[in-house]
Specification:
The chain contains three helices and no strands. The protein has 94 residues and is mainly alpha-helical.
Length: 94
């Protein structure tokens, strides 16, 4: 049952980040990105916002399933964010 609360917390944080980054375009919330060097801030906000929305949906769905293996969503979310940071710092810089 403890897994449900952790995943629910991850879902809430991911939905908030999806809203603030994807909809409001608050890219200053992102760490690991060199804001001055990114060419297209709008594209970065869309990509990260959509990824956070997907993580939020997966975490919310996982919190409803009481199975110990659902906790694997945490490392997948972290790996995805690292991959997004690497993509942005390699492909989206000037």
């Amino acid at each position: 049952m403890i897994y449900s609360f952790e995943l629910l917390f991850l879902a809430v944080v991911s939905f908030l980040l999806a809203y603030f980054i994807g909809a409001k375009k608050y890219t200053w919330l992102l760490s690991g990105y060199n804001q001055r060097r990114i060419r297209d801030q709008e594209k970065l906000a869309r990509i990260v916002g959509k990824y956070n929305m997907v993580v939020g949906i997966a975490a919310a769905a996982g919190s409803m399933i009481d199975h110990p293996d659902m906790i694997v969503i945490f490392p997948i979310a972290v790996i995805g964010h690292v991959a997004l940071a690497a993509y942005a710092n390699v492909k989206m810089v000037e």
